[in-house]
Write a structure and sequence with these properties.
three-stranded mixed β-sheet, single chain, 7 strands, four-stranded mixed β-sheet, alpha/beta
Length: 140
């Protein structure tokens, strides 16, 4: 196992940028996940939506989740890895950016996602421990 595609979860489900936050939350419940990639009408990745985003950026701000779209919550730089990127590159990116999940693309097509759980299931305990420690430490 030396590439992102070797440990990624394939067949990832997107929330469409025009779908409401309520629809996104329902998908999260149905799929038992805490994050979904946001895909636009052009099938390109627009960002990631987490359950924390919904709580902090919608509920806590008093916004109407049925009137707010997933695309409105897509922000900043989209961090991805290529399907053929090395696992060292993936782990370094996750640690440096302090992210728990990273979408995997092949060209411009979303082909999977790598989460800490994927790393935990497929890599040695010491590697998993290092990643969890790096991701969990506050940014300097």
């Amino acid at each position: 196992m030396s590439k992102a595609r070797d440990i990624m979860t394939p067949d990832v489900t997107c929330v469409r940028s025009e779908e409401s936050v309520v629809e996104a939350a329902r998908k999260m419940v149905e799929l038992d996940v805490g994050a979904l990639p946001i895909c636009g009408p052009d099938e390109r990745l627009k960002g990631m939506l987490t359950d924390r985003d919904i709580v902090v950026r919608v509920v806590a701000e008093g916004r109407d989740p049925s009137a707010c779209t997933a695309g409105e919550l897509a922000q900043g730089e989209i961090v991805t890895v290529g399907a053929d990127d090395s696992l060292d590159r993936v782990l370094e990116l996750m640690a440096d950016r302090k992210i728990r999940r990273v979408p995997v693309i092949d060209g411009h097509v979303l082909v999977g996602i790598i989460s800490q759980a994927d790393v935990a299931r497929r890599l040695p305990d010491s590697t998993v421990g290092d990643l969890v420690t790096d991701v969990s430490q506050p940014a300097a």
